[in-house]
């Protein structure tokens, strides 16, 4: 199976679209579609004619594409092929993005979303916020095929899955749990009081260091609450940073001759 880069896919699609547009504009037709070689000779830049199985995937799903390609090569349904490939990734405990072993939410619970669309019938189905169900891509397909809904979420989606024979299980692996604990310890500010609290004022002042004589601290914003002062600090810090970048660029440009500056 050939691995295409995004650039190759884009250029091939662009060439095919250009050829199709030229045919329509000038009334020129391709040779018999059964003669792929003749078509290729007539338009060497165009993709091969006829049906050619193609699946596009992110990097973490590339190893699962053979499962889907086998279905396509046998004339199977396109959605069945896609779901078969995604199921391989969902079953992989070493993949942190989806399914078994996926990283949990803030509460330590793995919640999964999935959506599918079927080109031939123009139908779709989806689920969101599903807990304790591993293969949510299959569940989204079941929503499309067996209900009059487009999306089912939360505990309703879990109950529908159980009714359809999906197995409930704990999706949090030990490795994912450790990653979650490390994130929770590092992001402990998420569990602190809001940004109006004294703790947040100290954190903001450390993050956006400004002199205590600055108008933000001296109460030059009448009626502003702590949260507004904090946001003002962030805005002032951002503007100061932007000014520094502009000055640095100006100094860099001034080192070049005028002709060079104009050409840029």
What are the salient characteristics of this protein?
264 residues, mainly alpha, three-stranded mixed β-sheet, 49% helix, extended
What does this entry look like structurally?
The chain has 264 residues and is mainly α. Among the domains are: 6-42, no CATH class; 192-254, no CATH class. 49% of the residues lie in helices and 8% in strands. Strands 1-2-3 form a 3-stranded mixed β-sheet. α3 (65-73) runs antiparallel to α4 (78-91) and α4 (78-91) runs antiparallel to α5 (136-146). The two termini are 44 Å apart. The model is unreliable at 28-48, 220-225 and 258-264 (pLDDT under 50).
Tell me briefly what this model is.
With 264 residues, the chain is mostly helical.
């Amino acid at each position: 199976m050939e691995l295409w880069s995004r650039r190759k896919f884009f250029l091939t699609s662009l060439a095919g679209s250009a050829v199709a547009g030229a045919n329509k504009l000038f009334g020129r037709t391709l040779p018999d579609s059964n003669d792929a070689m003749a078509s290729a000779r007539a338009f060497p830049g165009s993709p091969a004619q006829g049906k050619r199985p193609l699946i596009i995937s992110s990097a973490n799903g590339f190893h699962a594409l053979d499962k889907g390609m086998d279905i396509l090569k046998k004339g199977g349904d396109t959605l069945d092929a896609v779901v078969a490939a995604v199921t391989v990734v969902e079953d992989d405990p070493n993949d942190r993005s989806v399914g078994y072993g996926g990283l949990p939410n803030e509460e330590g619970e793995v919640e999964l979303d999935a959506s599918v669309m079927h080109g031939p019938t123009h139908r779709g189905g989806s689920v969101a916020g599903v807990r304790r169900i591993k293969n949510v891509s299959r569940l989204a397909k079941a929503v499309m095929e067996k209900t009059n809904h487009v999306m089912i979420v939360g505990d309703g989606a879990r109950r529908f899955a159980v009714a359809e024979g999906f197995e409930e299980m704990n999706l949090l692996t030990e490795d994912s749990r450790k990653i979650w604990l490390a994130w929770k310890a590092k992001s402990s500010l998420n569990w602190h009081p809001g940004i109006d609290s004294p703790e947040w004022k100290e954190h903001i002042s450390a993050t956006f260091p400004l002199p205590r004589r600055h108008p933000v601290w001296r109460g030059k914003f009448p009626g502003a609450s702590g949260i507004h002062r904090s946001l003002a600090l962030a805005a002032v810090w951002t503007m100061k940073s932007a000014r520094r970048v502009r000055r640095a660029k100006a100094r860099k440009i001034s080192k070049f001759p005028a002709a060079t500056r104009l050409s840029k």
